[in-house]
Design a protein that fits this description.
Radius of gyration: 27 Å
Helix content: under 10%
Number of domains: 2
Strand content: over 45%
Order of helices and strands: HHEEEEEEEEEEEEEEEEEEEEEHE
Number of strands: 22
CATH topology of the largest domain: Porin
Distance between the termini: 65 Å
Structural class: mainly beta
Shape: globular
Oligomer: single chain
CATH architecture of the largest domain: Beta Barrel
CATH class of the largest domain: Mainly Beta
Amino acid sequence: MAFRNKQRMNKAIMIMILLLLSKLVYGQEEAVEKPEPPAFKMFRAEENYSYLRDKETNLYETDYFDVIKFISLDKNKNVNLSLGGEIRIRLEYFNNRKWTEEDEFFYSQRLNLHANFNLGKYVRIFGELYHGLVSSEEEVTQSDQLDVHQGFIALRIPIHDTHNLDIRFGRQEMALGSARLLGLREGPNIRRTYDMGRVIYTQKSTKLEVFYGKEVKPEFGVFDNDFSLFNSSSMNPELWGLYSQFKIKKDIGNIELYYLGFRTPTSFYNDATGKDKRHTVGLRRFGKIGKSWRYNTEIIAQFGETGSKNVTAWAFETDWHYMFYKMKLQPELGLKLDVMSGDKENGDDQIQTFNPMFTNPAYFSLAATIAPVNLIEYHPSVSLKPTEKIKIYIEWASFYRFSKNDGVYSPPRFLAREGQTTDERFIGHQFGLKYEFEIDRHLSFDLDLSYFIAGDFLKNSGQAENIFHLAPTLSYKF
């Protein structure tokens, strides 16, 4: 009997040891296999932290900010609050800014706090406060002591299992496509936002959107960025449009088809000034071919009126990248060609100058030297990934005027140099380098460097100093 009891005891001990070991192994596997939470999105209003609703089923690692990412306000956890923000500091140095013997060094900081309040499954309110400080008085779009950067209400109407209709009204950020015409303006200290109404229909890979709004012009004080959507006398540029994104069955990639309307009381081009009203239609194809190829091609046509002149303008872009994903540094080679129309003849009643509307100022580089207007651009590049946390991007761009009778423009659409003083087309070369280091999920460091070599057009039309620009940036998101 004692022998049997001893056997049973040994067996029970072995079972307990095996259970304990399996528990430890399972726990270790769980700790190893659990990925870190999803990366913060460029549009913070689109983040979703519903995975924190139940700690037992949370598939991600614990983050020390989880406590403020899903704050339940009712028993069923359908009413909840999520908080977040960013602290960004940047130094910028220009040598020979705007091709003149003007050097500039300044500091900027951006602090923003946001709250996403879910009132059940179908209604939410999103608000975001911005503080922007810059040490240079000339950087008019980068300073704002304190203001409402975003504040909108969103209503979701489920139509079917995979069909949704979203209605948004209020102050909000928006960008479409490749940011050629509607960009976020992430480079400068204050991002672009609109007072706007939007209706968005989504169904799997299909998206349809209708919108009308006005760009918010940042002032410098406290809560002085007026809501201008219903103010007929405001000078804020207007935007309206219809945007679609869809896939064709058995076709590679995605398609965007859109119409955009634009109106501003004042515009200044080489051969036209005054009220500018544009109608823009565009077609974009983009996507991947296999694991290595990535492409983006866009065709745009514009018509309307600027001052007393009729507008017929256009733009074309093709951008191809090939990644050697099996190689150690995963090098990716890129080649981009941009062509934007310019005015053919001075003094007539027509203008062919392309208007990039709300383009990203850093479309060609963070230095924001040239806008995509009256331009031919040839742009090879290479990117490398030494580690999972580090990415290095190197580019060489060459710029030419499309029309000899039109000038050179700076972002977003300002005439920087008149065009009729010389027949030279070549504007210059630009070398660029970007170093990105994701220190952890919250903290990142970027370094942007560019060097612009002035070409014959600049040399024959005024000052033509080579431009050096350096901008280190540190960002902490939560």
